[in-house]
Amino acid sequence: MTRYLPARLREQLLAADDQRCAYCHTTEANTGQPMTVDHIVPQAQGGPTTFDNLCYACRRCNEFKGSATAGHDPLTGETIVLFNPRTRAWTDHFSWDASETHIVGLTAVGRATVIALNMNNEVIVDARRRWMGAGWHPPEP
Prior knowledge:
Blueprint (H helix, E strand, L loop, with lengths): L6 H10 L11 H4 L4 E4 L14 E4 L1 H7 L4 E3 L6 E3 L8 H4 E3 L6 E3 L2 H9 L5 H12 L8
């Protein structure tokens, strides 16, 4: 990951991602850890350090994603390109379950991304539950 980003690019990312993970929509306050900058297409695969290829990601999503750009749809078994927050709308591919603690993949892209990034891992679901008790709710679409 690029360690230095020009201030203007960092501000552009903060504004675009509303200071939350572009994948699971978790905030820094919820995780207790600073956001990381994710190369949607990793640098090792030729991904540039430009706004169109960067997003803010929580540490968990970033670590689980690693250098992956595709995952398996559990419904069809097909290999699917993962969600790209710069070219796709979150609400087209994901929603929250009734408890607002689990992310549901609505499409093959959404399902593959939920699995690949482990977006409903026990640690983050517990954090969401704690925040729900404190009045936090997922962002409105």
